[in-house]
Amino acid sequence: MNKRPILAGLFLISVLSGYAQAESSDAGIAADILQVKRSVLELNKDLYELEEDLLSPATTRAAFYFSLSYGEFFEPLSIEVTGAGFETVRHIYTERQVAALRMGAVQPLANINLGPGKHRLRAVIRGVDQLGQNRELVVEQQVEKTDKPLLLEFVVSDLAEQQSAGAQLKFW
Amino acid sequence: MGHFIRFLFLSLLSFSAQSAAAEDAARLAPGQAVEDFSMPSAVGGWGQRLLEQRGKPVMLIWLDRCDRCEEQLVRYQLLAESYALDELSAWFIWAPYNNDQPPKMRLPVLLNDRYWPQSWGFDPRPAIMLINQDGVLDHLILGDLSGHYDETEKTLALWMAEQQLQARAEISNE
Questions:
Q1: Which of A10, B12, B90, B174 could serve as a FRET partner for A83 with CA atoms 20 to 30 Å apart?
Q2: What is the pLDDT of residue B87?
Q3: Does any domain span residue B12?
Q4: Distance from the A54 Cα atom to the nearest Cα atom in chain B, whole angstroms
Q5: What would the mean pLDDT of B133-157 be, rounded to a whole number?
Q6: What is the mean pLDDT of residues A21-44?
């Protein structure tokens, strides 16, 4: 009886089984890598949340927004928001940004930290009127920060009867 | 305590990132991406934001001390306007000094002032920056504007031709 085919078969089986073992070990490593990647992503997310909580907890979180209603009588060129307890917020508007505001966009102006209590805010919106003359719209108002986030929107809207524009503060 | 240490670490990290950004602006060299900025107009009108020009070639002309120096800039204005059809955006950037008045030009004259946090400065001036459609600085020409006009004209012509070729290649690839 020729033993060669049997030996060759046994050899082939052992090679294939070794290959299968190596493959399953590779698959195990790949699964481990995937798990590690997931853990890193979760850790990163936790760190990000921790950073957010540390830098801007809900008790001090406040945000300013800006919007323009129609904008026939006023085109904003810049805005400046001042108040005690936070750094002055300044923004320069471009033609494209104002076009977006006219189409209804609400601009997230700034996220700030504001301690609980009453605060006096002053916003100066510089721009030009329908005649091309420089104009300033000023909003000065006291706001109260509680332990919840404070979201404020500066709204510039047309006052058709007066052929002019006015600015006001809206609470979300 | 652990929170305080993490907070301190994050603050230091954020501070070092800000310092690095400021140093990058000062060390800007060809091949580097140009950081975004917004600057108001020095003469009234719209402010400009660099990022909004992405996809177009941009020429920034950083002025040295200038008090109504229109005469010095008029050749540069005509040069930039000759490429308007090729969508070149060109801005003069003027910094106030004592009682100097900004030049009144047809091209936007931007006010470079530390008052505006979205802005950054560049030194040495005068300087001319050619920024490609990807927001990368391709050419930086330093020195007196009058003495470097010919160099700017030649560099701009070659560069605009390259920009056009690149734009056409991108369109044909699509």
A1: B12
A2: 93
A3: no
A4: 7
A5: 96
A6: 85
Which amino acid is located at A107 in the chain? Q
8 Å CB contact between B21 and B37: no
> What percent of chain A lies above the pLDDT cut of 90?
51
Which two three-digit tokens encode residue B10?
């994050």
Tell me, yes or no, whether B15 lies in a domain. no
Six-digit token string for B53: 């020009």
Residue B47: DSSP 8-state? B
How many domains is chain B partitioned into structurally?
1
- Contact residues, chain B, for A91 at CB < 8 Å: 38, 118
Quick check: B88 and B157 in contact, CB under 8 A?
no
Q: For residue A96, which residues of chain B lie inside 8 Å, CB to CB?
A: 49, 52
Instruction: Kindly state the tokens that stand for A16.
Output: 């294939």
CATH label of the domain that carries residue B44: 3.40.30.10
Asked if residues A54 and B10 have their Cβ atoms less than 8 Å apart, the reply is yes
A94: nearest CB among B49, B115, B116: B49
CATH code, residues A61-171: 2.60.40
ipTM of the complex: 0.73
Does the CA dihedral A125-A128-A130-A133 come out positive or negative? positive
CA of A52, closest CA in chain B: separation in Å? 10
Residue B7, in any domain of the structure? no
Q: Among all residues of chain A, which has the CA nearest to that of B37?
A: A92
Rounded to whole angstroms, the Cα distance separating A45 from A43 reads: 5
Q: What is the pTM of this model?
A: 0.72
CB-CB under 8 Å, A90 with B7: no
Which residues form the domain of B131?
Answer: 31-173
The residue written with tokens 């230091």 in the block is B12
Residue B58 belongs to a domain: yes
